[in-house]
Amino acid sequence: MAYGESRIVRVIKGRRPKIAVIGGGTGLPVILNALKEQNAEITAIVTVADDGGSSGVIRDYINVVPPGDIRNVIVSLSDIPKQEKDIFQYRFNSKDSFFAGHAIGNLIIAALDEMKGNIFDAVQSLSKMMKVDGHIFPASNEPLTLNAEFMDGTIESGETEITSKNKQIKRVWVTDSDSDAEPKAVLPVLAAIMQADAVVLGPGSLFTSILPNLMISNLGEAVRKTKAEVIYICNIMTQRGETDNFTAADHVRVINNHLGGHYIDTALVNGAKIDMDKFHPEDYDEYLVPVRSDFEGLRKQDCRVITDDFIDQRSGLVFHDGRKVAKEILNIAFEAYARRRQEG
Prior knowledge:
It comes from Lactobacillus colini. Required for morphogenesis under gluconeogenic growth conditions. The chain is an alpha/beta fold. The chain has two domains: 5-47 and 139-343, Rossmann fold; 51-135, no CATH class. The chain is 40% helix and 19% strand. It has a seven-stranded parallel beta sheet with strand order 3-2-1-7-8-10-12, with helices on both faces. The longest helix is centred in the last third of the chain and has 22 residues, at 322-343. It is globular and about 55 Å long.
């Protein structure tokens, strides 16, 4: 039985642990699917500052929040049959200048956004259609632009432009793509963070998938104020153009600096050795080297560190093992809920 489980499960018997997961990218659905299998009550808060791939092209044609991350999260939490999920995920291989490379799900999300008048209502409607177990909330109801200042003082806008510079990033922030209004998260997003037992950041690209959400002013404030345990799932490998040579402590430090204090309560850090002979960096050149733990640096960030074998590299690639990570998240959520009960 996992650490703390025998003591805490009795306290929350009959209540699903509430987990709010904030992020984007390919790693997020892996964790969400595993948490779903563990019967957690999940709220996925998904970044809307992406400007690449099919999402970016649709965003250029139609004034809509980029749908790619939202599409993948919907599939990860959906209870519809696999064949229907495969149709939703299908990408056209047509030579047509518009449809080539687009996923059907992205087009459906864009259509619903037009029908409903905003992305939040569109995602709620689609979640019902896709029989989603949990809640999926865009981090903002408007398309956002990611901005970055580099260590040399230069500034760039747009995820693709930022990462292509291959320069060390000092800080990032987001702006409304269509107006001068300050980006805001809608109330259900804030409520999910405040009511959660655990708020999970990651896994995902530090500067382009995690921090854009936290830079939405009222969303970041909710993370600072929540009584939930704030957990950071540290990336397994460094990422070209974003976190070259970063340790686990560097990742946590950057998040804390952007939040303005030590707000990461627990960091989940992989401790297993990665078999680089099975890894193929020529095919996945955004990954450079395994992230080092740096326990002394992590302690300076005032966060608890949980180190374990959190990876699945059976395919010859390196991914988080969703079940291992989800199990640890639930243990932490159980502890946090019990502690809040005791504190009244």
